Every structure is written in structure tokens, then in C-alpha cells.
Amino acid sequence: MKFKTFIAIALVVMLSLVVTPVVSAADVGPTGVDDTAGVFLYCAGTSAGTADAPTGVAGAAVTNDIVTNAINYGVLEFVGDVPEEVDSFSIGTNAESTGPVDASLADVVEGLTTVDDFGLLDDGDDDAANFDVGTGGCFVGGLRAIPSVRDALVIVPDGTPAIGMMGPSVVGDADAAEAALDGCEIFIFDDAELSGMVITLSSPSNNIVIEIDDRQIDPYTADGADDTLIAIDLDLLEDEGLFDGTYIDTISVCDDGIVMTGAPLFPAMSLEIDAIATRSLVRYQGTGTPGYWKNHPDAWPVDEITIGGVSYTKEEAIALMKEDDKKDKTLTMFNALVAAKLNVLIGNDDSCIADTIIAADAWMEDYGPAGIGVKAGGKNSPWREGEPLSLELDRYNNGQLCAPSRG
Fold it and tell me: Which of 72-81, 88-97, 316-325 has the lowest average pLDDT?
């Protein structure tokens, strides 16, 4: 059997994307030209008719199918679908004629649980399917730690710049569903006519602000079902000098505070967030300290580790890490080096620490093995050479260099 496949091309428009301070976004219709690499707008419906008499079909755009595939294959990780991931939210003024804005944490979490009001992805209950923000309302959150489930996660670039074309719409496995998302890492689903919003992507070293106007794309889709996907690619933002290439740990999506005006007016005149998502493959845990690794043996990615040319089983290494290191600096170095190596093994960026790990390994080979009894005092103590290496490893393990702390 042959399947016909489709590619969704972003309805690209003039966006304003800046590092603070924020400047005004251009209000451009569906024929506008995008000059901002890294931010793409996709509609879930077809465009036909006129603004006063829309006849386009809701859910007819192939974006609807591409998103459905991503959900069915478990490619997307949602942000704000559990209370722990909601840092804060504020309630805007009521600009909805079909019901009140969402005023409780439970309402916010319910609305952000999954993509269920995008095109034909419809659960039949608009209020439950979205976080109805209201004019001037806001969401702030991230992939925070969930007790007994997981540690905090961050979002990293995947190394594949987006080209502004999603697809195909027919896929046979999770890898193909992932590839169809065009390398973007962050997705914001807006219900009904595109409402003006301010998106902020942040971390300790980043503050990326994206402004989108009311109806910045405005396809003529009947019943106001011109739902919009805002897809963001961190690799292109890095190429533009707007992102430092590390990670994003906080996403803020806020209504722009302007009530939508002009025909056609549908019930949604302010921001309705259907979902905020990232791809499961671009989220990862940050660095752990020696204290974390010695108390979480199940988190170790290996059963054996080599330090200074000596191999230790996981159990042997943990036993040494639990010893008092005050009178033996080989144990201090051992603790820091084990943690750093494990942090790299689970996928953390090592560009800032690789040379230090090599030097610390060499120090342990010269003055170890762990537990041999190297003291800190004295002008000829090997620790004069080893301490700066250990301190640098500690900075890395605590998330102070090129990789975040696991939080």
C-alpha cells in the first residue's frame, strides 16, 4: 500500500525576537515574510474565504497529522502538566464569552496536560482543554523535579537547525515522527485565532524574548479554529547570537495585555494555551554532586569506573566516597572525579571540563590510588597541584560551568 505524504511549511511572518529590552513586533498577515531564524508559525487549518466570511477547514492542514503522530509515538514531553512544573501563573482579565479564565492551579494543569484542542485534536471541552490565560495573564514553568519520579530537567539544542518545513505527515515509527518536527525543540500550541503573546526562554545565562502580535498569521478558517503552533529551534537562535548554546530551564508564556479587536471576533479574544511541549530526546538531567552519586546508586550509568588507571566497581567506589576525606586528599579528588565522570557519561556537556578530568586522572595515577593517605599540609604536598583541579571539578559538578545542576 502506498501512502501519500505531505510537508507542512511554516506560515512565516515578521517576528520580533530580541534579548531584552523588548521591541514591538510587526503585525503582518498570512503573506508576510519571516526574517527571524528559529521561530516558525504553523496553522492547523486551511485558509479560504475572507476575514468576514471564512470558509477554510479546521484541522485540514497537515500540521494536525504531524502533531498527532508525535503524540501517538510519545515524542513530546509536556511542560506544566503536573503541579510541580508550574512555577507561577497569573490571571488576566476575563476576555472570554464562553466561560471564565482559569483561576486555580488545578485548572492550569488540566489545560496544559496534552495537545487536545489543536485542529481536529479535540476533546470536546474547550475550557478543560486549555489554560485560558485572560488578557494580561501569564504562565511560568519548566521541567522541574517531581518527588519520587525524576530530577529536574533542562532543554538543550539537538544540533540540527530547522529549515521551516515539517513532515512527512505519514510515518511508521517514533524516529520518523521525531524527524518530522524539523529539529525544533520547544512547541507552544495556541487555540483559536492567534492571540498576541510574549514568550520568554531563560536560564541563568539566557533571556530570550519573542513577541507575537494578535493574528500575526490569520488564516480564514471557519469557526475561529485557526489554531497555531509556534515552533522554536534553539540551534538557529544560537546561530543568530540570541542563545549561548547551553540550555533552557524556564519557559514563560504571557498574554500581551491587548484585547483582540476587529472582525471576525470569536469567543477567544485573549491567549488560550493548549499545551507547551518539548521533545523527549532534548531534555536531560544536569550534573550531580558527589553527595548525589553516592546516595543514588540506581542512577549510575555504569557498574564500574576507572580513576587514575584503577578500576572500581560501583559498590567499591561508593564505599570510598562515603569515607572521611579530611585527612586524605586522594579521597577528595576521587569523589570529585567520580562525580564529574558520571555527569559526563549521562550526557552533560564536557567542553569546559574535559581537560581538567584528564589532568585530575593523571594526578590520581601519580599520587593514588584512593585512600593512600595524601595530606593537604606542607609546601611539598601533592595537594598544592591537586586542589585547583578538585575545585574546578566541584564547580562543574555543582552546575557552575558549562552544564546545569540537576536541581
Answer: 88-97
| Contact status, residue 118 vs residue 129, Cβ threshold 8 Å | no
Query: Pairing mode, if any, of strands 228-232 and 283-285?
Result: unpaired
CB neighbour list of residue 388: distance below 8 Å, 6 or more residues apart: none
pLDDT band, residue 260 (cuts 50/70/90): confident
Task: Tell me which of 151 and 214 has the higher pLDDT.
Answer: 214
Instruction: Give the CA angle between residues 383, 385, 386 to the nearest 5°.
Output: 60
Q: Could you report the per-residue pLDDT of 268-302, keeping only the tens digit for each?
A: 678 889 999 999 887 777 888 999 999 989 888 89
Say how many C-beta atoms besides its own lie within 10 A of residue 162's C-beta.
23
Q: Which positions ≥6 away from 251 have C-beta within 8 Å?
A: 79, 139, 140, 141, 142, 186, 199, 200, 201, 202, 276
**Cell 529536574 maps to which residue?**
152
Dist. CA 29–CA 216, nearest whole Å? 6
- Helix ranges restricted to H, 182-265: 234-239
Pairing of strands 206-212, 39-43: unpaired
Report the interhelical angle of 354-367 vs 383-397 (nearest 10°): 140
SS3 85: helix
Give, for 363, the enclosing helix (H) or strand (E): helix 354-367
Q: Which of 32-41, 68-77, 145-154 has the highest mean predicted lDDT (pLDDT)?
A: 68-77
Q: What is the DSSP letter of 128?
A: H
What values do phi and psi take at 299, rounded to 5? -85, -10
Residues 6 or more apart whose Cβ sits within 8 Å of residue 45: 56, 57, 58, 59, 60, 61, 119, 219, 221, 225, 226, 227
- Give me the torsion for CA of 261, 262, 268, 273, rounded to 10°: -70
Which of 231, 285, 282, 280 shows the shortest CA–CA distance to 73? 280
Q: Count the residues in the chain.
A: 407
- The three-class DSSP label of residue 178 is helix
**Gap between the Cα atoms of 72 and 177, Å rounded:** 9
The span from the CA of 392 to the CA of 279, in Å, is 32
